[in-house]
Amino acid sequence: MPTTYTPREMLAKLVSFDTVSSKSNLALVDFVQDYLEGHGAVCHRIYDETGEKAGLMAHVGPMEAGGVVLSGHTDVVPVEGQDWTSDPFEVVEKDGRLYGRGTCDMKGFDALALCAVPLAIARGIRRPLQIALSYDEELGLAGAPPLVRAMRDRLPHAESVIVGEPTRMGVVTTHKGGTGFRTEIHGYEVHSSKCHEGVSAVMTAAELIVWLNARMQENRARHEAAPTPQSEGFDPGWTTLHVGRIRGGTANNITAKDCWFSTDIRVMPGESPDAWAARYQAECARLEAELKKIRPEARINPILLTKNPPFVREEGGAAEALARRLTGDNALRAVSFGTEAGIFQSGGYSSVVCGPGDIEQAHKPDEFIEISQFEAGWTFMEKLVDGLCE
Ligand SMILES: [Zn+2]
């Protein structure tokens, strides 16, 4: 007999695996794969290059195109340095809430998706239900592209993808994409009284940061003059270019030999992260050529860390129509956080973001999901399963 769990039991089980992004998720994947195969699902794993982490895809129902993908991630953000009042890897119920790391982001949805499988089989599934569980979502969505590619290669194409990030079960049809850099600058040290003979890595960083900020102000001005239709629901409705960290230099009176800073560019739907990355790299190259005239050793090295596509509102999208039918939510919603929806969409899948819980509670100490949200998520799954069994 295959093992079955109530959604609450499944959540407790998933939370008990410490799958902080820096660690292996294989113990969780073993458990989930055993469970799904016990219910007759066809499963495939996609390992990362270390072999310590894997994405998991599963298929139940007829081996044909159509049906739904339920998409979640297995990793969670760290708990170190956070003040938790209970064990983060144990689900604790209190005041109508379920506390634990990942209850909201997003093992709550994962648990509901996994419990939907035996339900669909028991009710007589007639259209495919697929599960996609990624790793490294919290590390710049790194695990989703190989998972989506493998799903396209190895499973029949699903009609709709539901990415269950916490939206309080609201139907989110668009979000920004993004790209991130760590820019390393190597200058040339001289006494600061002879600045013109050296290259200050710190002052070069400042030039690049001013350039980034100028582009952001241009974007803002363009938006305020003439907002695009894609910007509806976004706050702010323009591409932002932000520098969050910087380090460099050794003394007040030495032109800095080294400096690095990190850049986070959040790209509006309708614009391209590739184009923004290329534009920034071109500016780095232009400035580097200037510096080399002073000292040939000078270098600017913009290291690309992440690049993820925006999630664009679909005209008459199947996933949106499905999620609206199941939730009754007809509002136009955009969110400011990135999800795997943009990656599924780029892979040719109609996608939507809709899941239980509030992003407010994600990533914090004492993360929780309201029981009412968890139950609303289960009602959604029951309706979705009914649709697949019609
Ligand atoms: Zn998440």
TrEMBL record:
<protein>
    <submittedName>
        <fullName>Acetylornithine deacetylase</fullName>
    </submittedName>
</protein>
<dbReference type="InterPro" id="IPR011650">
    <property type="entry name" value="Peptidase_M20_dimer"/>
</dbReference>
<keyword id="KW-0862">Zinc</keyword>
<comment type="similarity">
    <text>Belongs to the peptidase M20A family. ArgE subfamily.</text>
</comment>
<keyword id="KW-0479">Metal-binding</keyword>
<dbReference type="Pfam" id="PF01546">
    <property type="entry name" value="Peptidase_M20"/>
</dbReference>
<dbReference type="GO" id="GO:0006526">
    <property type="term" value="P:L-arginine biosynthetic process"/>
</dbReference>
<dbReference type="GO" id="GO:0046872">
    <property type="term" value="F:metal ion binding"/>
</dbReference>
<dbReference type="Pfam" id="PF07687">
    <property type="entry name" value="M20_dimer"/>
</dbReference>
<keyword id="KW-0028">Amino-acid biosynthesis</keyword>
<feature type="domain" description="Peptidase M20 dimerisation">
    <location>
        <begin position="174"/>
        <end position="287"/>
    </location>
</feature>
<keyword id="KW-0055">Arginine biosynthesis</keyword>
<dbReference type="GO" id="GO:0008777">
    <property type="term" value="F:acetylornithine deacetylase activity"/>
</dbReference>
<dbReference type="InterPro" id="IPR050072">
    <property type="entry name" value="Peptidase_M20A"/>
</dbReference>
<keyword id="KW-0170">Cobalt</keyword>
<keyword id="KW-0963">Cytoplasm</keyword>
<dbReference type="InterPro" id="IPR036264">
    <property type="entry name" value="Bact_exopeptidase_dim_dom"/>
</dbReference>
<dbReference type="InterPro" id="IPR001261">
    <property type="entry name" value="ArgE/DapE_CS"/>
</dbReference>
<dbReference type="InterPro" id="IPR002933">
    <property type="entry name" value="Peptidase_M20"/>
</dbReference>
<dbReference type="InterPro" id="IPR010169">
    <property type="entry name" value="AcOrn-deacetyl"/>
</dbReference>
<keyword id="KW-0378">Hydrolase</keyword>
